[in-house]
Each structure stands twice: as C-alpha cells, then as structure tokens.
Design a protein that fits this description.
Number of strands: 11
Strand content: over 45%
Largest sheet: 7 strands, mixed
Order of helices and strands: EEEEEEEEEEE
Distance between the termini: 39 Å
Length: about 130
C-alpha cells in the first residue's frame, strides 16, 4: 500500500502562488503514475494534472494550463504542483493520487485509474 501525504495548501489572494507537495511512502515510487485532483465546494472531484513515471509526460485540465506545473522527484518520492496566478475558482481540496503497475509513459486522467489517495489539502483563493 502507498501512503500519500499532501502539504502546502493554505489561503492566498487571487493572483498569488502556492506549491503543493505530496510525499509518498511504501513501494517503489518511481513505478507510480501520479496525479492531482481537486474537489471544490458543491462540485465533483476533477482531474487537475498528472505525470508519468519518470516525469517525461504531463497533462493538465484546460482551466489550469499555463498556470500550474506538475513535477516529481523520484529520489525524494515526492510529487509537486506549482500553482501560479491563482483564481477564486481554484478553491478546493486538492488530492494526490498514485497508480501502481501503470504504463510507464501514460498520464491517467480518470480517477478510477488511481488506487491510492492522500487525505487532501485545502487551497482557498480569496478575491
């Protein structure tokens, strides 16, 4: 089982930046496809960004393209989400997710493809 712990959330003004971290323990991190999802108030959980096992491929939901950057450090078993130019509509609980035994090159956008989830970290963007 993979244990995931998110950190870095908080309250920020519109236009500001935050960097989320997700530290993983258990298993072999470099073989996990990783993703970030979010769930805003009254909304369903949605895909935000994903990254392949070696970081060579990334993907983003259209609403965050050009503002968010996902990265990973396999030596530190951590995945990051750098969020710039934050907007009030980015307010949500952000979840880190891991998929074991995935395809090396694939970025998974669907939540059902992920087997392990963190507890989430709150991001609140004030206008």
């Amino acid at each position: 089982q993979v244990h995931l712990v998110e950190s870095g959330g908080g309250l920020v003004q519109a236009g500001g930046s935050l960097q989320l971290s997700c530290a993983a323990s258990g298993g072999t991190f470099s073989t996990y496809n990783m993703g970030w999802f979010r769930q805003g108030p009254g909304k369903e959980r949605e895909f935000v960004s994903g990254i392949s096992q070696n970081g060579g491929r990334t993907d983003y939901v259209d609403s965050v393209k050009g503002r968010f950057t996902i990265s990973r450090d396999n030596a530190k078993t951590t995945v990051y989400l750098r969020m710039n130019s934050l907007k009030p509509e980015d307010t949500a609980v952000y979840y880190c997710a891991a998929r074991r035994l995935g395809n090396f090159f694939t970025v998974y956008r669907n939540a059902i493809n992920y087997s392990d989830w963190g507890q989430g970290t709150q991001v609140t963007v004030s206008s």
